[in-house]
Amino acid sequence: MRKAVLFIAVLLSVSLLPAIGFGYHIFEIRTEPEFGEGVFPTSVMYQFNFPMPDFIDGCKTEFAFRLDNGLVYRDLRQDPDTGAVMAKNPGLYDFPKEYTVHFDEFNLFYGQGFVDTEFSDNDLLTVFGSIDGRFEMAFERLSWMTSSSETEGVFWDNDHNYRFENSSWIGAPELSGDRSIFQTSLSCGLMIDYMRDRSVTRDGIRAGLYWRFSPTWMLLNDGSASYVLSWNELQFSKTLYSLEQPGERGHYWFSVVLDDYLTYRWIGGSKVPAYIQGGEMWGPDVPNAAHVVTNRLALTFYGPQMFSRDIFPSVMFFWDLGFGFGEVLNSSLDETIAESVGSYGIRCEFVIASIMEFFCEIGCSYDPVFDEEMYVDGKIGFSIGV
Amino acid sequence: MKRIALTFLIIFLAMPLMAIFNSESYSLDADISGVSTGVKGFGWELFPLGTKFGFEKDFEMLKGEHEAEFKIEFEFTFNNRELSEDYDYLTGRPRWALRPGETGNFFGPDKWRNDTDWNNADGERSLAYFNPRASINLYLEQGFWENPLDEGGTLFDIKLGLNSRFAMSLEEVSYSLRGPGGLDSPVFVNADGDRRKPFDSELPAYPWLNGSRNVLTNYIYLDLSLNMDRDTPTDAEAEEGLGVDFLFEAGPHWLLNNMTPEGIQSDYYRMELYAEQKMELFAVYQDNGWNWLNMYIGHSNTLRYTFGSVVPENKLPTDRLRGVFQDRIWIHFNGPQFMAGDCFTFIELNLYNTLLFGSVVNEGSGRTNAVELQSSFSTKFQLRLFGFIRLEYQLGYDFIRGIWPDKPEWWQNAALSFYVSL
After folding, report:
1. Taking phi first (over 0 means left), then psi (-120 to 50 degrees means alpha), and beta for anything else, what does residue A330 get?
2. In the predicted model, what is the mean pLDDT of residues A205-227?
3. Are B310 and B252 in contact (CB under 8 A)?
4. Which of B10, B72, B79, B178 to mutate to test the interface with A (most CBs of A within 10 A)?
5. Pick from B21, B47, B180: which is nearest to A308 by CB?
6. C-alpha to C-alpha distance for B311 and B366, rounded to whole angstroms
7. Is residue B371 a contact partner of residue B391, using CB atoms and an 8 Å limit?
């Protein structure tokens, strides 16, 4: 029945469109280290634009169908029974936390821009709203049970016992039952874009406010989610130095850019799925509290743009800070926390056509979350991404 | 596996060739498919399990000629497959080639149940397994001269490409669930992680299931095509013209196909010649230029031969016989376009006659040779909506089954897919 309703809903939503042809964007391509050494793609987010007249002359009107699908890795961060933050007592939870999630998310998206800035693809102000649906299915990491040294997972221990036999899954509501969810939500927000972004130079600000609402009673929602999300972000960028190549192409020999990315998110609700929790940064994750703030300060040195604007090397120094405070979400302990985390590092890249990169990265988690230990980690390889 | 990363590092060092690309824009080709053959229990079979997408750049490579195209395509699919019960995993000998009384080593319930070493008293050992896989395909294409039936199109194209594919063969994802899966019925491993028979030894007929069952294979290809056919921007137009295509693929062991501890996972060459002719029978148009009805008839021939000692999973020919000659005749009937140019229906009637011949690939001894004829009739009905939804129903009758002892049979299938080709 649910399958039929969903199909009819999708069909009706598109049958109203007097459209021919599509525009399209790819927003993000992701890889996972355990799948082909992180070289091959495992998920992609993209959008098909239905042709729409611009309601305001010179400003963009978007009506689009967004899809995000594939496979990602995720960590279990809270005790499934109580919701206690595992990092507070790592000795109690000494087992692999990583698992795999197969997911599909779709959004029927409408956006209206105001005030054309000419130097940006986006208008100065864009207001948007969407109807969203997301399906997920979780299972052990891909390397689990591929050899006698890989028998322990997050759900199964080394003695072939199910680790959370009678768990209530308060700490990770999307993992209860058969670990499948289908959740629907409504979203809206606005975005301000006053950024002159030319790949190796950036000047200006971007800001965004985004709300997502997923009550249990929403049509087709399977009841595994109940939350309200407010996501707020601010980016400030300044080109400190630039040396332009001769000619009319506007390419650069060298540039130095300072960026700061600040996010603040608030979540209220009793069942908060992992995919909207946020708080990711290099190294430690900010604990899942009602309020989470993250900030990245980055200084990037760009080398010469070689023949094309999107082929260039770069070296970035970054410093990440995170702060989680307030009530711990998905918890039965009525616990309130105030915890800061921090990391810094260097990332060297050689970007090819904006979709491929060779990279070398090293970072230090100098202020880990709660009682976890600080560590230094490095990676080198080839990856794809947009 | 670190060597895999190194492999790509080397391969993509060739990328500075892109320095010649001064074009500043990209275009994208994307499709979404695979919704109907998914992982057990995944998304009521309505959700995509894979995506194929790419980026291309057009640029002037040869002065005075058409623009060349450089394209990189990515594809990933995460769904289930089933082990074949038809080939001896040690010798590669097909089941149909066994003499009366002769037994072989085949995957499948008989062996699963009857061999005490293999039996698992706790649950049914299935043939299904989880097969996440992805590929990267990049090519450079240059066209020459003018297609007389397509303004701006090219008459002759040369395409040179490289394809890399990574795949894993794992237990079904439901295996890690407490209820339906658990640790009761794994295909490849025991509960202590050791490999179950026969996956604890080399499987020459199934090189992609050896060892860790992680596979990296690469091949290069050259594609020459002659195009004298009409452009059909929405696929709702009647097709007409002819085309000839020659494809040569090479996936030898020295092309980084022996990078994993499992040894050589690809060592093959393949040639294919394809020719088709299509002729419009009638076309009736609406006032706005859309069609009411049209019909065309088509005919094609394919000749393909696969050489080599190790043919990877994704390049296995039908019935594993090296040679294929196929003749196809079809009639295609397009219904009216409605609401939008890419909303229409079509019905297609196909008659296939396929001659398969030669020795069996991945059979070490090479002693099995066969010639067989397979003939089938099929009809396909498709409803396309807004360029990305397809509802399809197919009905077919296989009336000559070649080497397979089964009687002629009817078959049918239906699918809903999301597909975009831009």
Report:
1. left
2. 92
3. no
4. B178
5. B21
6. 13
7. no
Judged by CB atoms closer than 8 Å, whether chains meet at A69 and B51 is answered as yes
Contacts of B422 in chain A (CB under 8 A): 21-22, 24
Measured between alpha carbons, how far is A94 from A283 in angstroms, rounded to an integer?
Answer: 18
Residue, of B257 and B245, whose pLDDT is higher: B245
Q: Would you give the end-to-end CA distance of chain B in angstroms?
A: 36
Detail the DSSP E strand segments found in chain A: 23-30, 43-50, 61-75, 98-114, 125-140, 180-197, 202-214, 226-244, 252-271, 289-302, 311-328, 336-352, 356-367, 375-384
Q: Determine the structural domain holding residue B201 and report its residue range.
A: 2-418
Cβ distance A135 to A222 under 8 Å? no
Chain A neighbors of B20, CB-CB under 8 A: 307
What is the distance between the alpha carbons of residues A240 and A245, in angstroms, rounded to a whole number? Answer: 17
Say which CATH number the domain at B247 has: 2.40.160
Number of domains in chain B: 1
The residues with which B329 forms a beta bridge, in sequence order, are B299, B351
Amino acid, res. A24:
Y
Decide if B288 touches A, using CB distance below 8 A: no
Q: Is B340 on the interface with A (CB under 8 A)?
A: yes
**A20 interaction partners in chain B (CB closer than 8 Å):** 234, 340-342, 387
Q: What confidence tens digit (pLDDT) does each residue in A84-105 have? A: 999 999 999 999 999 999 998 9
The verdict on pTM exceeding 0.90 is no
Q: In Å, how far is B160's CA from the nearest CA of chain A?
A: 20
CATH of domain A23-384: 2.40.160
CA dist., res. A125 & res. A113, Å (int)? 6
Between CA A231 and CA A238 the distance in angstroms is 24
For residue A76, CA distances in Å to A172, A173, A300, A339, B238 come to: 8, 11, 33, 18, 55
Mean pLDDT of the region A189-211: 95
Selected residue of A28, A37, A155, A175 to mutate for chain B interface (largest B Cβ count, 10 A) = A37
Of B265, B137, B267, which Cα lies nearest the Cα of B212? B265
Out of B18, B135, B176, closest to residue A353 by CB:
B18
In our burial notation (b when 16+ CB lie closer than 10 A, e otherwise), range B252-288 reads bbebbbbbbebebbbbbebebbbebbbebeeeeeeee
Q: How far is A121 from chain B (nearest CA, A)?
A: 13
Q: Which residue has the tokens 């080939």?
A: B87
Answer yes or no: is pLDDT of B418 > 80. Answer: no
For B192-214, the pLDDT digits (tens) are: 888 888 898 899 999 999 988 99
Strands B214-229 and B344-360: unpaired
Q: Rounded mean pLDDT of B175-202?
A: 80
Please name which of B422, B418, B404, B344 lies closest in space to residue B50, comparing C-alpha atoms.
Answer: B418
Q: How far, CA to CA in Å, does B195 sit from each of A149, B171, B401? A: 12, 12, 37
Q: In whole angstroms, how far apart are CA B307 and each of B20, B215, B252, B275?
A: 36, 20, 10, 21
Residue A326 φ/ψ region, left for φ over 0, alpha for ψ in the -120 to 50 degree band, beta for the rest: left
Amino acid letter, residue B46:
L
CA distance linking residue B184 with residue B191, whole number of Å: 8
Identify from A26, A40, A199 which residue to disrupt to test chain B contact, counting B C-beta atoms within 10 A and taking the largest count: A40
Q: Which helix (H) or strand (E) holds B294?
A: strand B291-310
The candidate with the shortest Cα–Cα distance to A199, out of A126, A297, A125, A121, is A121
Q: Do A92 and A78 touch, CB atoms closer than 8 A?
A: no
- pLDDT at residue A345 above 70? yes
